[in-house]
Amino acid sequence: MALARDGAQVSLPGAVGFDLDMTLIDSRPAIMASFAELARETVTAIDLDHVDRRLGIKLEDELAFWFPPGERAAAAQTYRKHYVRLAELTTALPGAPEALAAVRAAGERVIIITAKHAISVEPSLRAAGLAADELFTFVHGPEKAAVLRRLDAAAYVGDTPPDMAAAVQARTRAVGVATGSFAAADLADAGAEVVLDSLEQFPGWYAGAA
Description:
Layout: E1 2-3, E2 9-10, E3 16-18, E4 25-26, H1 28-42, H2 48-53, H3 59-63, H4 69-86, E5 91-92, H5 96-105, E6 110-113, H6 118-128, E7 134-136, H7 142-151, E8 155-158, H8 161-170, E9 173-177, H9 184-189, E10 194-196, H10 202-208
Parallel strand pairs: 3-6, 3-8, 6-7, 8-9, 9-10
Antiparallel strand pairs: 1-2, 4-5
């Protein structure tokens, strides 16, 4: 149960799902630094601008652009070794703590559903000072939709077109936040019901969402 601005209660029952990278946390510095270290250690030419444009996909899917199949598992291990060390560069995006607090104040649960591997999620959340009531890691695209359906989530908040497509597929409210690599128009085209400039706008939207 959420509170409207005038104090009246409005109903948006159910847990709210949030993507992690570039939705709740600014993980770009840690990701870019980790890919730079991976490129250096493996002597592989990795175009960081291209990586940046695809932020939000599984690491293994990104590595497929740069490594042959037989080298990807080792590359993933090397990347995560560096990422765990560099996760301290992570910060909460503006409005993230307040967005999670708004959901909990309404008596609902905060669910983080992310393509990030579990080993990288914990240090990222710790650095950002955030926590989930329930956490699903290493899921992307249609896999997120399956989680959202199972939870009967009220909404899913994310920064990429696949996030919006997952919400639509799960028949939950798709809330885009234009803090990642995609413009508001990209999120709207993918099915976002609403696109926020940042999570600073989330509590207001959530309070009025019925």
